[in-house]
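Box 4.2: Ligand-aware structure prediction
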Amino acid sequence: MVQVRAGAYDCDVLVVGGGIVGLSTAYAITRAAPGKRVTVLEKEPGPARHQTGRNSGVIHSGIYYRPGSLKARYAVRGAAEMVKFCAEYGIAHAVTGKLIVATEREELPRLHALVQRGRENGIPVRELGPAQIGEYEPEVRGLAAIHVGTTGVCDFVGVTRQLARASGAEIRYGARVVRVDRRPERGVAVLTASGDVVRARVLVNCAGLYCDEVARLTGDEPEVRIVPFRGEYYELARPELVRGLVYPVPDPAFPFLGVHLTRGIDGGVHIGPNAVPALAREGYGWGVVRPRELAGTVAWPGSWAIARRHWRYGAGELHRSVSKGAFLRAVRRLLPAAEAGDLVRAPAGVRAQAVLRDGTLVDDFLIREGARAVHVLNAPSPAATASLPIGREVGRRVLEMLAAAG
Ligand SMILES: Cc1cc2nc3c(=O)[nH]c(=O)nc-3n(C[C@H](O)[C@H](O)[C@H](O)COP(=O)(O)OP(=O)(O)OC[C@H]3O[C@@H](n4cnc5c(N)ncnc54)[C@H](O)[C@@H]3O)c2cc1C
């Protein structure tokens, strides 16, 4: 059994997870408190192998989120900071702006509500009629749209690597945390799958798709479970059909933005992601099934509540997942020129969505504290955009905890 002994620490802060949130946290701590020793344990052979390396690469403006929420505050601030960070370190990025396009009459009130929300969040938006949509995107059709100028794209993997370098933290790859011994009066000791033991004063849990499990390893009950939702993508074989970023009006019942068209920093255009249940937390295709993880999802009452509440929407998403024709029909609402041959399968991502026992999809970022531990329990989109402010907030809590521990 791994045990904590007083005074014998390998580091001050141990971060579990080498995605963009874990490494932003390490970076924030060493910036705010030079001299603090931070160790990051990441189970993969390199950084950003899961959500951070499998997303749309969009620097979100913050237009969608409830004013005053962490998502709104951190996305608006984080987008500006992300652009600055990329510029400072020479990481590929571009502030392209984006269109949100209504294709059905019933979406018009929701589009208008987004204009209001954008203004409340301090984001300048321009309202467009059908003819003006063509000025930005000649091949896109819609009844009305808004243009958001502060949205951009960047290389989040490059950002994460730079955060790792600039943090000065010791980063151990291939180090999967399998056990935690936490003594409130002493600190934490973790055991990795390869048998290493690392002792620290405070643990930070940024384990993404496994954050609820890591929280439980410490002895804290997170009161949420991660329900993995896969997002599947196609690549557009004729990228010249899309100049920038084109989004539908999102369904407010879901924290997902709907299938969008995204020209990335490499010039390719991605179409997606949809949202289908994944059969494993890192289940990037229907063929990946992990019975233990699936059983855990099925045993959580919230999963059934989601299925009951959202079966109709879910059935549509499943249909579009297995039928390219159905996916194409959805894409054609925005981009009528798209043809079946234009859609080429691309790698998928899986979102770590926290779900309460009653089936509520946790909407805002969720950071909880236990004794000697800070847990990031919900950091879905736009957490890559917002990672610098999230890291600072987690870092602030950690430093307070260290000060209190003496
Ligand atoms: C399909 C998709 C599209 C998205 N699009 C965008 C977008 O355009 N813009 C945006 O801002 N956000 C987007 N997001 C959200 C964004 O990618 C995430 O919010 C962000 O990457 C979360 O970072 P993270 O560090 O919390 O998680 P992760 O990147 O998943 O990192 C967690 C890390 O913890 C490690 N880990 C887990 N368990 C252990 C363990 N026991 N021991 C050691 N290591 C462990 C994992 O290997 C992993 O590397 C998208 C997400 C998805 C899935």
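In the box above, the bound molecule is flavin-adenine dinucleotide. The CA atoms of residues 199 and 399 lie 17 Å apart.
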